[in-house]
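Sorry to interrupt, but I need a hand with the structure work. Could you add the entry underneath, on a fresh line?
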Amino acid sequence: PFTTTYSVGEDSADFIFGTPIPLTIPAGSTTYNLTLTLDDDGLKESPDEQVKFTLGEPANDGQPGDILHTLLTITDDDSEVTAAIAETLAQTDPSRTLPVEFVVAFGREIDPATFTIDDIVQAGTATGITWNLTTSDNTTFVLGATAIEGDGTLIPTLAANRVTDVFGNPNLAAVASDNEVTYDSTSPTVQIVKAPTQDTPTNTLPVEFLVAFSEAIDPTTFTASDIAQAGDATVDTWTVTNSGDDTNFTVRATAVTTDPIELTTIAPALAADAVTDEAGNGSEAASGAATGGEY
């Protein structure tokens, strides 16, 4: 037979085995089974610990020189599981379409039975949300809002100690990284009135009107070509000026063909869906005929 020693240890002394232990391997043996029982101290350390099993220099083995073998590495995976929530790369914000999707990413594989939609808390203003969870690897999950009753913000959160990994270690509270999406399924309303300084009747151009939307619109969708004339004058040229907030605009009739004898009216109007908001909802129809100016 030949004799060696083995030792097991780790930097934070989570597992304690004392001094090297003699090990005798019978003559003629090519394998030897050794059972190690590790005593967990119950502490939660980060990063994960490693337990190393080292075989010392053999004696009487008939081999020249010193031989040291690190035969085994055991990971003591008892740190808490990190988590992060962010909207998916393909998710538009704001959005009027469903589902609204987020990614929930854990630092390592979790026990999927411990992670359900009941663990998600909505911290935004949208109401009546139905969530759905899917995964292919138990590490990265897609969290989708498949139904929403009331418009507003979606801000999913995950508190600490709601999920465990396959070893039973709990999760840390999820770190939020762009985890807010505004859901907007409501069409903007529009109001068109004469500008406060606009005289009527008038024989002076331009004739000015104020257009106010109920919410910010996509200003690139509102141009002079969207203005229709609901009065009986012939408006040859309209201009549209943004106040800067994408909600309030000034519309001007800058060139008008009129009857030289009769008074005529200028009344700008917008057809339904002529303009869209930032989420893509088409605007409601609006007419300034009731408050048109005489020219």
